[in-house]
Amino acid sequence: MGKQTALYAQHQAANGKIVDFGGWDMPVHYGSQIHEHQAVRQAAGMFDVSHMTIVDVNGPDAMAYLQRLLANDVAKLKEEGKALYSAMLNQDGGVIDDLIVYKMVSGYRTVVNCGTREKDLEWMAKQSHGFDISLTERPELAMIAVQGPNAIDIVTQLKPDASELLANLAVFHGQAKGNWFYARTGYTGEDGLEIMLPEQDAAAFWQALLTAGVQPCGLGARDTLRLEAGMNLYGNDMDEQTSPLHAGMGWTIAWQPEERDFIGRAALQAERDAGVAMKQVGLVLEGRGIMRAHQTVVVDGVGHGEVTSGTFSPSLNYSIAIARVPVATGAQAQVDIRGKLIDVRVVKLPFVRNGKQVFA
Amino acid sequence: MSSIPAELKYVASHEWIRVESDGTVTIGITDFAQQQLGDVVFVELPEVGTDVEAEQDIAVVESVKAASDIYAPLAGKIIAINDAIVDAPETVNEDPYGDAWFFKMELANAADLDDLLDAAGYAALCE
Questions:
Q1: Does residue B1 surpass a pLDDT of 70?
Q2: Which residues of chain A neighbour B65 with C-beta distances below 8 Å?
Q3: What percent of chain B is predicted at pLDDT more than 90?
Q4: In 3-state terms, chain B is what percent helix, strand and coil (to 5)?
Q5: Residue B104 belongs to a domain with what CATH number?
Q6: How far off is chain B from A5, nearest CA to CA, in Å?
Q7: A95/A263 Cα distance (integer angstroms)
Q8: From the candidates A222, A227, A290, which should be mutated to test the interface with B, based on the most B CB atoms within 10 A?
Q9: Dihedrals phi, psi of A345, to nearest 5 degrees
Q10: What phi-psi label fits residue A191: left (phi over 0), alpha (psi between -120 and 50 degrees) or beta?
Q11: CA-CA 20 to 30 A from A199: which of A150, A241, A304, A305?
Q12: Count of domains observed in chain B
């Protein structure tokens, strides 16, 4: 048996099929992951993401420390509450993890992946040498993502004390109300919230959301939703052996100001000077068959690549994938699916945003 | 918990076998199998008239999560396939022992039926 979140009893009561996920007992679905996926695209769904790791960074050197630690630049966070997506790189430019950092009233809050928790905490502690900062993990906070076109309205009705906060909360910002923290972020490509709250409040809030008609969603729907939204999954689409420049994360690298010496900068600069060999693309297979991670992509006359995440898209009703391919790849490729080379289209990510197809 | 009807026969690869009154057999996948797969989104079936060996992979079922081969539980000839599950793969999740049968076979050797698991034997495998 693995670790359980404060919502484990709710998952069991809702007939969640429990699987091991990075040492946690988490629901993969509650009956049908396709139904859960559609609920998020069309109405509202909720995810227990309490397994994710929240680390607060405080102290006089917090900003300088994060400017060294992260490939994106927290100096962009001018106002309180603004969030930033960033890679945390090693010296070779490999991706240790991807994370979100919020600028808080004092200091910063980071949310990192659960599967990488130990190495992240170790790395963050090691890099803090010489900086006057404190790193505080917040395991006493649960986290519930409420996502979908109706998500914010429903939370507003359930939490009248936060209605003004929610009405003024801009996309990719977070604000605290008492010991709850509401962030307008997510991993689905829909509008919605990620709410960090004391774990003793989690079960009652989950129950209230359920009564309000919000669909509980498991890891299965979380994966198809993020894939349609063209969002990376750590461990699939990038890892320590992957350059962020090969994984569609170039936009998260803050090259300016040039004197900011973030970890991994020299390696990325050398790679850029030599010419980046691979790029991240979307693949679409409108016929039969489903692309899966690790299948080989064959680009005629150019070379080979790899599917890093692939699935059936419940919104589009055919298979989509995220792949790493040679930069010269054009609009067509083939994928080796169970020994057969199948023609696929190469498209720009994402596939779906706010319930609608967005690629051509 | 998954349902395991007593009147059916089973193989360890999670197919069920129903012996019809004319001696032919109808084959599908078990409730346990569909639960493990999750939402089924594609089914590929063999051609009618194909001669198959026992344990030969002759069909494919793909869920959102993974692709799985379906095996012929016995040697014989495919005499019918269920095109309805190709058009409506979700039937495999909804009615695995009824509307979502996969194919029917004429057996090469009726005595092979003695090698199949009964419901109790299959239930022990799923624990």
A1: no
A2: 220
A3: 94
A4: 20, 35, 45
A5: 2.40.50.100
A6: 23
A7: 11
A8: A290
A9: -95, 140
A10: beta
A11: A150
A12: 1
Domain membership flag for residue B102: yes
pLDDT at A1: 79
The CATH H-level superfamily of A277-357 is Aminomethyltransferase beta-barrel domains (2.40.30.110)
Structural domain boundaries of chain A?
A: 1-273, 277-357
Q: Are A77 and A86 in contact (CB under 8 A)?
A: no
Q: How far apart are CA A261 and CA A31, in angstroms?
A: 49
Residue B4 lies in a domain: no
Residue in chain B nearest A309 by alpha carbon: B65
Q: Quick check: A212 and A43 in contact, CB under 8 A?
A: no
Question: Which letter does DSSP use for residue A245 in this model?
Answer: G
User: Any idea which residue has 């197919």 for tokens?
Assistant: B15
What is the domain range of residue B64? 9-126
d(CA A162, CA A156): 7
Q: Alpha carbon A321 to chain centroid distance?
A: 16
Q: A1-273: what fold?
A: Gyrase A; domain 2 (3.30.1360)
Question: What are the residues whose beta carbons fall under 8 Å from the beta carbon of B9, sequence distance 6 or more?
Answer: B16, B17, B18, B19, B113, B116, B117, B118
ipTM above 0.90, yes or no: no
Q: What are the average pLDDT values for consecutive 10-residue runs of chain A, which has 360 residues?
A: 95 95 95 96 98 97 98 96 98 98 96 96 98 98 98 98 97 96 98 98 98 98 98 97 97 97 98 97 94 97 97 96 98 95 97 92
Reported confidence tier of residue B2, pLDDT bands at 50, 70, 90: confident
Average pLDDT rounded to a whole number, residues B14-29? 96
Closest residue to A224, CB basis, from B62, B64, B67: B64
Q: Is residue B95 part of a domain?
A: yes
Asked if the domains at A1-273 and A277-357 fall in one CATH topology, the answer is no
The A residues from 171 to 230 touching B (CB cutoff 8 Å) are 220, 224
- Integer Cα distance of A78 and A259 in angstroms: 19
Between CA A304 and CA A324 the distance in angstroms is: 9
Q: Which two tokens stand for residue B69?
A: 């081969």
B1 within domain boundaries: no
Q: How far is CA A56 from CA A14, A66, A101, in A?
A: 32, 11, 9
